[in-house]
Design goal:
With 216 residues, this protein is an alpha/beta fold. Helix 1 (31-42) links the parallel strand 1 (22-26) and strand 2. It is built from eight helices and five strands; from the N terminus they run βαβαβαβααααβα.
Length: 216
């Protein structure tokens, strides 16, 4: 286990609400920020900020650069969540996780966490409507993520990655998604690890935001 970080308060922007300042950094520039912005608005989470990569920043490398920039520009964040897809990038994700752990250790008063979905964020959306642990397929007909989106289409008549209403379309099923994600986690603990099994850590972030909306 990594050494426990000593926590000391750094001076950042004032916390008008008295609640923790949370930064959500998304590798994706459309679906993920649209979803979290919708959740933020619905729960009036004024201490939460959602941002994406800057022009020229791409993939896990770009996300890591953005995290470092954000922490340098503003040391007052309490929690930073880095949302990204696995998307078959084993080596890149492993490297990102290790480098992010080093950033976390350096950010004394700020928790920096990876929030990963396999194969992609759309699997979290799918859990709003159904539960499945079957691997999604890739091949000549498309990628694993495209397979997830195809299945999601059974529940959302119209879905595209730039849908500003994606949260509203899923909102009434959010507790179903949380329950389904928890069931998958419990099942995974009792089975041999499968690198192709779909999974998501979005559940932990959403639970955190819902807890914050209730007064944390």
């Amino acid at each position: 286990m990594p050494p426990q970080k000593s926590r000391r308060v750094k001076r950042g922007h004032p916390r008008r609400s008295g609640k923790p300042r949370i930064l959500i950094l998304c590798e994706g520039t459309r679906t993920e920020p649209n979803y979290f912005e919708g959740l933020k608005r619905s729960k009036a989470l004024t201490s939460v900020v959602v941002r994406t990569l800057r022009p020229g920043q791409v993939g896990p490398t770009g996300l890591l650069k953005r995290i470092r920039e954000e922490l340098k520009e503003d040391s007052g964040w309490d929690e930073v969540y880095c949302v990204l897809d696995h998307d078959g990038r084993d080596a890149e994700i492993d490297s990102f996780e290790k480098k992010l752990a080093a950033v976390d250790l350096q950010a004394d008063s700020c928790d920096v966490k990876m929030v990963l979905s396999r194969p992609c964020f759309e699997f979290w959306l799918l859990l709003h409507f159904e539960i499945t642990d079957r691997p999604f397929s890739s091949g000549p007909r498309g990628t694993e993520c495209e397979d997830v989106i195809k299945r999601l289409g059974r529940h959302l008549d119209v879905y595209n990655k730039n849908d500003s209403q994606v949260f509203e379309k899923c909102r009434e099923h959010i507790h179903t998604a949380l329950d389904n994600a928890e069931r998958l986690r419990r099942t995974a603990r009792s089975l041999p690890e499968s690198p192709s099994a779909p999974q998501t850590q979005i559940e932990t972030l959403v639970r955190r935001l819902l807890k914050l909306s209730r007064g944390w």
